[in-house]
Amino acid sequence: MRRWLHSQALWGYLFIGPAVLGLLAFVVLPVLFSLVLSFTNWDGSASISFIGLDNFARLFQDVVYLKAMRTTGIYALIAVPLTVAASILVAALLDRRIAGRNVYRTIFFIPSITMPIAIAVVWKWLYNSSTGLINFMLGLVGIDGPSWLTDPNVILWSVIIISVWAGIGSNMVILLAGLQGIPESYYEAARIDGASAVRRFLYITVPMLTPTIFFVTVTSFISSFQVFDLVYIFASSSSSGGGGVLLEATRTAVYSIYQNGFQFFKIGYASAQAWVLFLVILLITLVQLRLQKRWVHYE
């Protein structure tokens, strides 16, 4: 019996071995390596020297990085509430027994698994100032559409709109799972008491769904502070002649890390930026965990 258990354990270790090795090689070691690099001035060359906390001290004097963090914070504070609210609404509507419910769920979910470059191609056409569908529809009601991709005051909103649209699908799936875990007896009792659909939603659905909403909110904030792909596609690759101005308006923390690490080869400085961003995300997550006691109901 003991020999059989030993052989079973051995097979278990063999099965999880590749996953553990992959985790160590591609996650743990790079993270530790970046921590070491954050205390150096390495530029990718053979020479490397330890400079202590100089990179971190420089961060708080770097106007470009501080502005990028500010832009990232604005993006997160706008995009996350809109995405979560829209996801709750869509999930609540698609939790009802309506014709074609599965088709609608698929339609809303597809954007969350679509490649960012494909999303960018479609939305570049939609946002086109002269031939885009959005400005065409606005023109039908007498509204002059803005220059979605060439106006520095508008382009961040353009990215936010796409992020909300693309983020609804994955959140919707999680929220649907939470909705289906709410006992139907609660709704039946509320109907007997004469509660309207709105009151049932506000006083039963939302409170019972708060653990799921909390999870979605936390994960959305974490991902929003790491936004990169849409900024890279829309701003840095702009062919309108105003790419630099547009990049200033949309440069996020991760894009700043990318620039310093892979364009300017300031790898040590970029590593320090990455760790500061990690600490900011960690702090925000801890604050959310602390505040959940005030509004999340687990019963």
Describe the protein.
- With about 300 residues, the chain is mainly alpha-helical.
- The protein has 2 domains: about 1-40; about 55-295, Orthogonal Bundle (MetI-like fold).
- The chain has 13 helices and no strands.
- InterPro entries: ABC_transporter_permease, MetI-like, MetI-like_sf.
- Keywords: Cell membrane, Membrane, Transmembrane, Transmembrane helix, Transport.
What is the CATH third-level topology name of the largest domain? MetI-like fold
Coarse morphology? globular
Number of strands: 0
The CATH superfamily label of the largest domain reads MetI-like
CATH architecture verdict of the largest domain = Orthogonal Bundle
What is the number of helical segments per DSSP (H or I, 4+ residues)?
Answer: 13
End-to-end distance, in Å? 44 Å
Stretches where pLDDT is under 50 for at least 5 consecutive residues are none
Name of the CATH class of the largest domain: Mainly Alpha
Could you tell me the radius of gyration in angstroms?
24 Å
Number of domains: 2
Element string (H = helix, E = strand): HHHHHHHHHHHHH
- Going by helix content, strand content and strand pairing, the class is mainly alpha
Transmembrane segments: 12-37, 74-94, 106-127, 154-179, 200-222, 272-291
Membrane topology: Multi-pass membrane protein
Domain ABC transmembrane type-1: 69-288
Subcellular location: Cell membrane
